[in-house]
Amino acid sequence: MTDDLNEALQNIKLITGVENVVLIQKDGLPVASAGVWFSKEEVFAVASSTCAIFGVAGLIHGSFKYLLMESETSKVFLASLPNNPDYFLTITTAPRVNLAALFIEMRDSMSRVSYLLRQHVDGRLPPLRSYSVEETQQVLSGFAVADGNTPTYSTSRSMISLDRSQALALRSILRQLHDSIPNIESVFLSLSGGVRVSLEGFTNDRLAAMSFALHDASERVVRTLRNSSLQTVLCETEDTRHFIYAVPNGVFSLWVKRDSQKLGLMRLLLKHYIAETQRVLSSAAVTRPALPQDLRELILSERPKRDILVARKRT
User: Fold this and answer.
1) Are the C-beta atoms of 53 and 218 separated by less than 8 Å?
2) Across-strand partners of 45?
3) Percentage of the chain modeled with pLDDT above 70
4) Residue 34 forms beta bridges with which residues?
5) Number of independent structural domains in the chain
6) What is the CATH number of the domain that holds 238?
7) Percentage, residues of the chain above pLDDT 90
8) Which structural domain, as residue segments, surrounds residue 217?
9) For position 312, what pLDDT does the model report?
């Protein structure tokens, strides 16, 4: 089966604009690959990263046809195999690839891959690969962009504050967008600090949080692969399209019926409204959350582990 799988993946690789193709099991294990620059360690790193995105998208949409991450330097494409939810393809392409042509040309190859897996694997999934701490560090070091520097990894979030005029301006943009595109199911902004701006009030907060998480995971993959910033995430199911755009300190999220508008026209319309949204949010106040001094002292204290400190505010 290995030769047949490699041949099917190589057929996808030969499509104009395609750079790498990796067949991945849903739990993160790479099965086969074809490409121009992935090493063995890079294949495993890409597989584990995109598996996280695949899982988040699955929580939001249940099942989906594909997910597309776009940056200035490349596109990363996750495609579900027909009638085979245990595997998916991760495809990296040049930034100017023709997506419509890509979908059409890869259709037969994806069906071929799915057929081979059903015929030969028959539900028997290989075990997960485990990494020691040393092996994990070696994989991470392979993505360093400069020699002689020790990479550091940190996460920070800011909180955004909106005044009344800014909040009304954002809601006006969402209303105009809602009225210009037919069959919109939901449109909202999910901002850092838990701020949610929408036309439906504070409903579907879970979807807002998951949209933020999906964009965040996608951005990490794009930065890892191409050291570039993520611009757009598009997830398409049988019935809907889910657009996620980066905005200052948050994401813009739109659910719309798949057949309500041509994809190219919809993206042109969204470009204007995203620019307006970014303009309003760029003027909003942003602060970094800080721990109260007494709580900071508690967390950073060097008391023995056997001691327990209980603090209570008097009223």
Assistant:
1) yes
2) none
3) 75
4) 21
5) 2
6) 3.30.450.30
7) 7
8) 159-287
9) 47
